[in-house]
Amino acid sequence: xxxxxxxxxxxxxxxxxxxxxxxxxxxxxxxxxxxxxxxxxxxxxxxxxxxxxxxxxxxxxxxxxxxxxxxxxxxxxxxxxxxxxxxxxxxxxxxxxxxxxxxxxxxxxxxxxxxxxxxxxxxxxxxxxxxxxxxxxxxxxxxxxxxxxxxxxxxxxxxxxxxxxxxxxxxxxxxxxxxxxxxxxxxxxxxxxxxxxxxxxxxxxxxxxxxxxxxxxxxxxxxxxxxxxxxxxxxxxxxxxxxxxxxxxxxxxxxxxxxxxxxxxx
Length: 266
Prior knowledge:
The chain is an alpha+beta fold. The strands form five sheets. Strands 6-8-10-11-12-13 form a six-stranded mixed beta sheet, sandwiched between helices. A three-stranded antiparallel beta sheet has the order 2-1-3, with no helix packed on it. Strands 4-5 form a two-stranded antiparallel ribbon. The protein is built from five helices and 15 strands. The chain is globular.
């Protein structure tokens, strides 16, 4: 069940305060709560059976406590015509046509749109800046999408981060990365905003990814999550040089250079 932080947000990335809310995420503590806060006093919290039936009150209010922010999705997001959604495995993932790019998360298949020019320019520039630092650490490997990551080492999840670093991982089989990478960057686009900001953030946190960056080309921001030390996220601008936390000050990314490249071509 997707949970998240920030403002109430739909799966397509649009903010709304009139959508069903299926859970709250506590920004301060990093804990999840599967109940919702209903708008009307006569509406009761979801029971376990209601959750299984994917039913919820039509509306829900933002909590008064600013640390608890509702993450919302249209109810249609929980009703799929595909009866197998929720039970797909890695075997099914590899059986799909190669030209169909998807991610598998907890048994659910999520289609991925083709990346934009801005996305690809940013990804290329990130790789060029980070690669020289990784070269000084032969125990680490820098990879970028499309590259499979069997995040939980189970049969239900396979993701393709935009860019990631994995170190001292002896379980890799040259086809995919098995287990959580140390460092991940995802670049937002209109079609994946909810997916990367909420769904994958929680997956990466639970899988013990050490550091996670969300790059937002629209808002020109970089949100850095120090998941290893459970710190509050820090937001940077495209005018900043952003340190890579797991490198302990050795590596950083100059986003002013990246912005210059993007601005030149768009």
